[in-house]
Recover the amino acids of this structure.
């Protein structure tokens, strides 16, 4: 295992800043690991080797000239393939966008570049972010570094696996119904879905606009705090972006605070359907935290059982609309048979370009928005969404944060989950957070007897990421995984 | 494909005794903003194809709309001017259909929560002022343009994303003429409010018409058809007249009207079906999650109310009631705001003693006949007039107070129009003051009767047709400056004595 490549993002940045390592060394070490190990993991869809090396050399040159460097100078960061990057291909893991290179950067990418981060490559995911296992990628699944026969979770599976495998210091993921938190849990990394509107969506390829949010996936809570601080903030190009000032999360994090923190345990998240091994890790976590001075309160979020149907109605409706633009006319894949009409071109291009799960969700969403059915489905789902949000408001009147399992199971086997419904049920603990627009953090808190990571999810009040991060830090300090990282074997030249 | 041959307009009035047309219009007006409705690209007509685009206009993945607040202010102006109810919080909705000139696969529009509802607009049909109800006015974005050459299609997205308002009238227009007048009223109003150039040839003002007919006395509405692509005032009238007659013919021969969309072909003077209801799109409207509710706050309302000019309808009435203008002239005066403003400036500049209650009548005459005639001849707009409103007022005053005659007035007008000089100064410098002094005129009349003694004898012998000759001689002798009325009186007296 490479020392350099499993350092935290904060530590990697510090080494470059003080001259303990050059940016080029960092980039070379990570590229060596990717080249040696990613053929087995398949976390990346595109690795920008030349661009990363050139950017690293520039940073080293600027450092030697004494120029001021950004807070992430020289640190390699991976980007989920649903976030557009100028000059690097962006496909959302779909055949539909094969070969498309965006002419512009997402807001989050602009901010990373401004911080002098190295954008090392684009990471595999479920097509357009639709899935919970990364098996829905048109380029084939990503494998879990802890067990290569298992899925890494999804949809940001490539991003989670890359952080666990030491292919990058951190990843930028996206989360519509759990797509940052669930793979973070399954790969043993830290994943934060910020409050809706906290991070600009400009340049995020939309799946479900009212639920999508970009966030950091890291090896430590402190890393997540630093990365959030750098990517959050108002962006006039996103009308749903929040204007609130961004706290200095990292410096305010101090050490993990838990004594006196009131933590709610919602009964609906600890019922049947949780894998006993996951349940055991969570029980141990709760008892460790209670010993550390946390006060646990049992409570109820009564509309939780409605979150799953509500989510799939709203997300699919928005997806059916957002994906209308992929018509093969201006960019992406076009299928045009001889003598084809315009309608044929649309049908053939979309039939060939989209995978089965994307088509399923477009069909569901199109159905839900049909004239005459809007009130029964979409409007009703919005009303239920308001009830779910109210449940949380009432809970947060009593407690500071909520603690739940991130997912009902640890990573499952590739190809093991065969029906869509079975797959959807895996998101049951993460969806409500998106429906309510709340911040959610997944922190690794233990391993199952089979040696698979389990994450605890912390849910907080809108814009109260700091409380989540402080509580998360306390979990991290008291529930460290052992071994901390999966063993993928030594890599020559990667230290 | 069924087409109907063009018919003569003459056929219409007879059948209309029995059949009643019911017409509603959907009118699209491009708003005169500098940039697009939801992205920073510029707006211009005739720019090179696809030069006014950006990632959002192209529908690239990851782009997001940001609403141009300027478009809101312009739309609210129209809402206030039509006494519409303005929704404090309205919503943008997505309207879905697939077409290459719609890059996102949906149009951002408004659906069940439009910006304005329940308004009305003044329509002048001839000189009759009537109010037509407006069901709604909503904001939306324009689509691009596709053109086809054989097997190749071209796409120009310059127009895509240009802000529009769609104005929907109640189905209560009773004739093609009223529909055409409604279009003229919208055209006049949006130009009046400076929210659009509304040039139909540039597609800045466009119209779709819903037309049905029913037997007079019948309550139930007939099946309607939608006519698209009627893009001139003349075509609005022709296309609707054609459609009314087409429907009546079908019904009178026992046929049934199909609910369909028909495309008007102005060249052929016919319409043909575009798509039937069975093929109609389900637009799958839903609130656009990328855009927060559209809020009309006190600041916007204040800005709109503070700058709203008096509207054409009220001015049409006021010019007649307070300024003595004829209905026809009043209609012309309110046809465009610069003309009305010129008129009002001229009326305001008249001397205080000018006839109360009819101060505007002579100004309107001079403005609409002489000045507009001269400007039209020079291909100039009222705003470029070399003669200021004050000068026109001065000219009218000089005539009304008898300083110069109307005939001399025309000469003064022409000279001052050419030179830009003040009429009063010109009259003084050229010594054109009218002679209204009886003694002075009598002297000239005596002179004329001496010179033309033979004609005077003939007149007195009964050739009364010679009277004009004598007046003409006086005019000739005075260079046209003799007061014509006084001259006539004195001459008559002199000849009879």
């Amino acid at each position: 295992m490479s020392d350099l490549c499993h350092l935290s993002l904060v530590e990697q940045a510090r080494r470059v800043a003080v001259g303990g390592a050059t940016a080029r060394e960092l980039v070379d070490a990570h590229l060596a690991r990717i080249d040696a190990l990613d053929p087995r993991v398949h976390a990346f869809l595109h690795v920008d080797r030349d661009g990363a090396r050139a950017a690293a050399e520039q940073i080293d040159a600027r450092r030697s000239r004494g120029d001021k460097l950004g807070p992430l100078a020289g640190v390699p960061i991976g980007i989920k393939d649903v976030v557009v990057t100028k000059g690097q291909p962006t496909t959302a893991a779909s055949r539909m966008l094969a070969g498309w290179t965006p002419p512009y950067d997402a807001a989050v990418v602009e901010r990373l570049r401004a911080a002098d981060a190295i954008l090392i490559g684009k990471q595999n995911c479920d097509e357009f972010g639709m899935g919970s296992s990364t098996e829905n990628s048109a380029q084939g699944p990503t494998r879990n570094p802890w067990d290569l026969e298992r899925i890494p979770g999804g949809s940001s599976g490539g991003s989670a696996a890359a952080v666990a495998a030491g292919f990058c210091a951190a990843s930028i993921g996206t989360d519509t119904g759990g797509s940052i938190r669930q793979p973070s849990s399954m790969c043993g990394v830290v994943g934060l879905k910020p409050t809706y509107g906290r991070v600009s969506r400009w340049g995020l390829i939309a799946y479900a606009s009212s639920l999508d949010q970009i966030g950091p996936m890291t090896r430590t809570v402190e890393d997540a705090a630093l990365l959030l601080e750098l990517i959050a903030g108002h962006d006039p190009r996103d009308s749903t972006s929040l204007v609130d000032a961004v706290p200095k999360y990292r410096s305010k994090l101090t050490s993990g605070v838990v004594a006196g923190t009131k933590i709610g345990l919602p009964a609906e998240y600890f019922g049947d359907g949780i894998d006993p091994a996951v349940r055991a890790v969570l029980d141990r976590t709760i008892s460790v935290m209670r010993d550390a001075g946390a006060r646990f309160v049992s409570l109820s979020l009564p509309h939780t059982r409605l979150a799953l149907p509500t989510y799939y109605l709203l997300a699919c409706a928005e997806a059916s609309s957002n994906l209308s633009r992929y018509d093969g006319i201006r960019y992406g894949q076009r299928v045009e048979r001889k003598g084809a009409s315009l309608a044929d071109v649309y049908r053939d291009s979309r039939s060939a370009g989209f995978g089965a799960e994307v088509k399923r969700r477009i069909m569901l969403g199109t159905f839900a928005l049909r004239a005459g059915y809007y009130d029964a489905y979409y409007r009703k789902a919005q009303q239920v969404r308001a009830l779910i949000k109210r449940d949380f408001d009432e809970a947060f009147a009593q407690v500071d944060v909520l603690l739940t399992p991130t997912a009902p199971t640890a990573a499952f086997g590739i190809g093991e989950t065969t029906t869509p419904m079975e797959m959807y049920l895996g998101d049951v603990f993460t969806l409500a957070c998106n429906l309510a627009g709340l911040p959610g953090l997944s922190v690794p808190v233990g391993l199952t007897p089979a040696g698979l990571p389990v994450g605890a999810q912390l849910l907080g009040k809108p814009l109260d990421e700091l409380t989540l991060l402080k509580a998360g830090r306390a979990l991290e300090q008291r529930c460290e995984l052992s071994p901390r990282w999966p063993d993928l074997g030594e890599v020559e030249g990667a230290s | 494909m069924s087409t109907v041959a063009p018919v003569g307009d003459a056929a219409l009035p007879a059948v209309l005794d029995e059949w009643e047309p019911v017409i509603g219009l959907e009118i699209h007006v491009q708003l005169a903003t500098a940039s697009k409705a939801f992205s920073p690209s510029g707006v211009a007509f005739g720019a090179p194809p696809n030069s006014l685009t950006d990632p959002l206009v192209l529908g690239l993945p990851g782009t997001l709309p940001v609403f141009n607040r300027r478009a809101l202010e312009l739309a609210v102006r129209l809402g206030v001017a039509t006494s519409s109810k303005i929704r404090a919080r309205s919503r943008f909705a997505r309207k879905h259909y697939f077409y290459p000139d719609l890059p996102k696969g949906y149009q951002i529009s408004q659906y069940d929560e439009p910006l304005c509802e329940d308004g009305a607009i003044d329509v002048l049909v001839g000189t009759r002022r009537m109010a037509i109800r407006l069901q709604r006015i909503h904001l939306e974005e324009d689509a691009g343009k596709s053109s086809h050459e054989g097997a190749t299609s071209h796409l120009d997205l310059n127009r895509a994303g240009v802000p529009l308002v769609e104005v929907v009238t109640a189905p209560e227009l009773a004739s093609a003429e009223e529909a055409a007048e409604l279009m003229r009223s919208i055209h006049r109003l949006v130009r009046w409010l400076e929210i659009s150039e509304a040039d139909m040839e540039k597609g800045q003002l466009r119209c779709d018409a819903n037309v049905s007919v029913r037997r007079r006395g019948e309550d139930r509405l007939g099946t309607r058809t939608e006519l698209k692509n009627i893009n001139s005032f003349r075509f609005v009238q022709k296309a609707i007249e054609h459609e009314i007659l087409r429907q009546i013919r079908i019904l009178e021969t026992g046929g049934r009207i199909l609910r369909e969309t028909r495309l008007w072909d102005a060249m052929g003077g016919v319409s043909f079906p575009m798509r039937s209801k069975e093929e109609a799109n389900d637009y799958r409207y839903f609130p656009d999650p990328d855009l927060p509710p559209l809020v009309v706050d006190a600041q916007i309302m204040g800005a709109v109310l503070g700058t709203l000019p008096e509207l054409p309808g009220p001015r049409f009435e006021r010019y007649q009631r307070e300024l003595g203008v004829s209905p026809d002239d009043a209609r012309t005066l309110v046809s465009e705001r610069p003309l009305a403003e010129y008129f009002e400036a001229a009326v305001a500049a008249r001397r205080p003693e000018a006839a109360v209650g009819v101060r505007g009548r002579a100004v309107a005459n001079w403005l609409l006949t002489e000045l507009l005639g001269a400007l039209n001849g020079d291909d100039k707009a009222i705003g470029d007039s070399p003669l200021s409103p004050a000068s026109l007022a001065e000219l009218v005053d000089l005539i009304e107070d008898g300083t110069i005659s109307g005939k001399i007035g025309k000469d003064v007008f022409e000279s001052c129009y050419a030179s830009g000089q003040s009429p009063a100064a010109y009259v003084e410098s050229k010594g054109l003051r009218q002679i209204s002094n009886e003694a002075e005129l009598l002297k000239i009349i005596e002179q004329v009767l001496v010179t033309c003694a033979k004609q005077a004898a003939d007149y007195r012998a009964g050739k009364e047709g010679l009277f004009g000759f004598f007046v003409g001689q006086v005019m000739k002798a005075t260079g046209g400056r003799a007061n014509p009325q006084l001259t006539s009186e004195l001459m008559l007296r002199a000849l009879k004595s």
